[in-house]
Amino acid sequence: MSLIHKRHAAEAAKHAKHAHHAKQHGSAAKAMLPNGLAARVLSVLPVESRLLSPVQNVLATGTAYLDLSIGVTYRAIHLLFSGTLTLAMITGIRIIANGQVIHSVTATQRDMLNQFEKMVAYSTNRVLTIPFVRMGMKGSNTGYFSGLCTGRASPQCPIPNGIRTLRMEIDIVGATGPGLIAYADVVDADPAQALQLWRTEVWNEQVPSGSGNEYTHTHKYQGDVNRATFHRFSFGAADSEVTAFRMLVNKQEVINRNSKVNEQIQAMQSLRASQSGFVIWDSSEDGNSHPLKLGNVADFELHTTHAAGGINMPVIAESLGVLNA
């Protein structure tokens, strides 16, 4: 056999070996995918839309729930309403990962946050979206670093098998014949899309009466490594009540804004839309991420200036961090 023929034979053998391995790995990958999805589906379609299992216990008054499948990365859940169900009738939506509540707001608060990010309002299609990735980010992948990766360890949840259980709970009050159908946007379980865990939590501040007084918030946001960075605070009062806000890190002022100026700044990039009844500080208002890094900070102060006070003000705090249990 000539040298050229030997070389061709060797290359043919190598290609055959690679093809054999590819076939084996392709079969294994297909077997590992949830619900029998073929590997090629996820490679062709970057995001798959799924109709989820029926939401359980959807009653006039009570807590509906859905245990979500493990083995994919969730980018968003969409709730389709039917019957007489309205946003006001849903007094709580919770996402619970490994037994820990990581997302807890009312339906009205969730819709407000969505509209702030210029997503379609619930009233348009009677659909409420719960996103797990950040909207309106300029980097092509930046927003996707907080997808909920389930069934395997990730930077977001660096323990064996990562997020092992995932449940959604929905508190319903006073509905007649309510209906809920859940859909999800998912991709394969990909740790690269789960670098941080996005938490959405509400803390209530009892602001005393007083014209033009500055109030110091009592909830402590600093020193929690599981909530290492904060990227948004939403104050549940109109800009006619919360007229300004300040933030100090280790006694050094880092944020000082009049509420009207804040809205003007957010409108400059056309990525955010001010919401009636709320004053919102957003670290990604320009499409880039500039979060407050508070995980290792000894002291953090959050102040709001009030026209009248005498209110119980909810503060929606959105943080990025990890889940360690």
Radius of gyration: 24 Å
Uncertain regions spanning at least 5 consecutive residues? 1-45
Topology pattern, helix = H, strand = E: HHEEEEEHHEEEEEEEEEHEEEE
Number of helices: 5
Report on this model:
- This protein is 18% helix and 37% strand.
- The chain is of the alpha+beta class and 325 residues long.
- The strands form four sheets. Strands 1, 3, 6, 7 and 9 form a five-stranded antiparallel sheet that branches. Strands 10, 12, 15, 16 and 18 form a five-stranded antiparallel sheet that branches.
- Mean pLDDT is 87; it is low at 1-45.
Helices and strands in order:
Layout (H helix, E strand, L loop, with lengths): L2 H30 L6 H6 L3 E4 L10 E6 L4 E11 L7 E8 L2 E6 L1 H10 L5 H4 L1 E5 L16 E2 L16 E7 L6 E10 L8 E11 L5 E4 L12 E7 L6 E8 L2 E7 H10 L10 E4 L9 E2 L6 E7 L4 E11 L4
Antiparallel strand pairs: 1-9, 2-8, 3-6, 3-7, 3-9, 4-5, 4-8, 10-18, 11-17, 12-15, 12-16, 12-18, 13-14, 13-17
Short recap of the structure:
The chain has 325 residues and is of the alpha+beta class. It has 5 helices and 18 strands.
Descriptive keywords:
disordered N terminus; 5-stranded antiparallel beta sheet; alpha+beta; 325 residues
